[in-house]
Design brief:
Shape: globular
Number of strands: 0
Number of domains: 1
Radius of gyration: 11 Å
Structural class: mainly alpha
Largest sheet: none
């Protein structure tokens, strides 16, 4: 089964981008968020990812 990069349905602060990246690579979401804070150009990258990543399926 092929994994796909999606926004996180459970680990969301703003739109779930960092949580989705953390789940995909098996990292801590806090670490991914810290990387977005210290990387230059982070706002533009985050906006692009927030608009292009698919939503994760939500189970009730």
């Amino acid at each position: 089964m092929q994994r796909t990069l999606r926004k996180s349905a459970t680990n969301r602060s703003l739109s779930g981008v960092c949580g989705g990246i953390a789940e995909y690579f098996g990292l801590s979401s806090l670490g991914v968020r810290l990387l977005f804070l210290i990387m230059p150009g982070n706002v533009l990258v985050y906006i692009i990812l927030a608009n292009s990543m698919k939503e994760a399926p939500r189970y009730l």
